[in-house]
Specification:
Number of domains: 3
Low-confidence stretches: 373-400
InterPro entries: Sll1717-like
Order of helices and strands: HHHHHHHHEHEHHHHHHHHHHHH
Strand content: under 5%
Distance between the termini: 43 Å
Number of strands: 2
Number of helices: 21
Radius of gyration: 27 Å
Strand order of the largest sheet: 1-2
Structural class: mainly alpha
Shape: globular
């Protein structure tokens, strides 16, 4: 809800429309919201009187007058926000920006929304003037002040052993227009980096790989930060043993709950092999991307085909595999369409190919042979093709 409020803000749309970089505002927004959440956690106040008491202890901790005044002003200015939800605080910060911009540039904001092509019709001189006036609302002053507040909080909690975590998830959902979504995510990365001094506080951002790739493409400032981001990224990988343990637990829970008080294992249900050269488990897990949801979807699709039976037959497993493959194809299109618009062309090219036999070079040759003339597959002329211009083809190195 709050992210949509940002994207739909008249002031934000106007400033982005005239070319004002909103990344500093978005970073300060994330930092301010997360900093407020951290103070709420460390003060552990459940009513306003207690909050004022423990907040005074925090302020009294600071001995240098200038720093003390900054912390006191921050706590005082935002005291009411310590009782808000994160969404409410994001909306309030955005509304404050809207009020300030409208007070100074309200007439221009109205023209922007009333007339299509307003920004394109501005003269260069007029556009520069508006940008200069608008930038004062998104300067780095707030980020600098937040940096000082974070340093004070770091000193205050240095000896504490308690740890706090905030998890930010569901960033892959269509919660806001793409034109601003990836700039907000990139600003979140920067905001979280700015909280590193708080040693007992971690903000965990759960992000699918395709969303991260799209952020890098859509938010140009993030491209220069990729190596720095890698220092803060933990790429989740599951081993075959971990996936086996997860599947065993889910099957056991499902069948004990429905049918039996005895422990039920994978091999009790999946008795027949599809391929005599490999186990049923290996057959199934090799058709996943080694992710929990893949093997869970495969198992569920197969169990649906064998409803009412005591075990899964070979025919049931093959039918389940067909349904699982359809779901995986739909998911691949959904997840990667925004990052690689030609993904459907690529998937269609590979359809019907023998499973598990394609390496990178063979796939590259097949794609180029099917979609581009072979003599144009390598070399600069390949860029003349509409398909070759698509960033999807960069995956396979069809042109330099």
């Amino acid at each position: 809800m709050a992210m949509s409020h940002i994207a739909n803000s008249d002031a934000v749309q106007f400033m982005r429309g005239i070319g004002v970089d909103m990344s500093i505002f978005f970073q300060s927004l994330w930092k301010q919201v997360l900093c407020i959440e951290y103070i709420k956690l460390i003060l552990k106040a459940d009513d306003k009187d207690k909050f004022r008491f423990v907040a005074k202890k925090l302020i009294d901790f600071v001995k240098v007058d200038g720093r003390r005044e900054k912390l006191e002003r921050f706590v005082g200015d935002h005291e009411h926000q310590f009782w808000n939800t994160v969404d409410e605080n994001i909306i309030e910060i955005t509304d404050a920006l809207e009020t300030s911009v409208n007070a100074s540039l309200g007439a221009e904001v109205q023209k922007f929304h009333a007339r299509a092509g307003y920004a394109r019709g501005l003269s260069s001189e007029k556009k520069v003037q508006l940008q200069q006036r608008a930038r004062k609302f998104v300067d780095g002053k707030m980020i600098a002040e937040l940096g000082q507040v974070i340093s004070i909080l770091s000193e205050y909690t240095r000896q504490r052993q308690d740890k706090y975590f905030i998890i930010i998830d569901q960033l892959d959902e269509p919660w806001v227009d793409d034109s601003v979504k990836y700039q907000l995510i990139q600003a979140l990365f920067e905001g979280v980096k700015g909280l590193q001094k708080l040693r007992n506080f971690k903000v965990v951002v759960a992000l699918r790989n395709d969303v991260y790739e799209r952020m890098v493409r859509e938010a140009p400032t993030s491209q220069a930060q990729i190596e720095k981001y890698n220092d803060h990224i933990v790429r989740l990988k599951w081993s075959k043993e971990q996936l086996w343990e997860l599947t065993e637990k889910r099957i056991n829970h499902l069948f004990k709950w429905k049918y039996s008080s005895e422990n039920v294992h994978f091999d009790h249900i999946f008795k027949q092999r599809v391929d005599m050269r490999t186990s049923t488990w290996n057959y199934m897990v090799e058709r996943t991307l080694m992710r929990p949801r893949d093997i869970i979807n495969f198992v569920n699709a197969t169990l649906q085909q064998s409803e009412g039976k005591s075990s899964v037959s070979k025919a049931d497993l093959l039918k389940g595999e067909h349904r699982y493959s359809e779901l995986r194809l739909e998911t691949l299109r959904y997840e990667w369409q925004g990052t690689f618009p030609a993904i459907e062309v690529l998937l269609g090219t590979l359809a019907g190919s023998p499973p598990l036999l394609f390496g990178r070079e063979r796939m590259q040759r097949k794609i180029c042979r099917t979609t581009l003339r072979p003599d144009r597959c390598h070399g600069r002329n390949a860029q003349g093709s509409p398909l070759a211009r698509n960033p999807c083809f960069r995956i396979w190195g069809c042109y330099p």
